[in-house]
Amino acid sequence: MTFTRVSIHGGHSGQFCNHAQDMLEEIVRAYIEQGFAWVGITEHMPPSADAFLYPEERAAGLTMDLMKERFGRYMAEARRLQKKYAGRIEILVGFETEDTTGAIDLAKQLIVEYGPDYILGSVHHIADIPFDYNAEAYQEAVASAGGIEALYCSYFDRQHQLIKQLAPQVVGHFDLIRIFDPLYRRHLMLREVQKRIQRNLELIRKLDLALDFNVAALKKGASEPYISRPILAQVRRFGIPVVPGDDAHSVQTVGLHLDEGIAILKQMGFDTRWRKPMMLKT
Question: What is residue 280's predicted lDDT score, i.e. its pLDDT?
Answer without folding.
Answer: 63
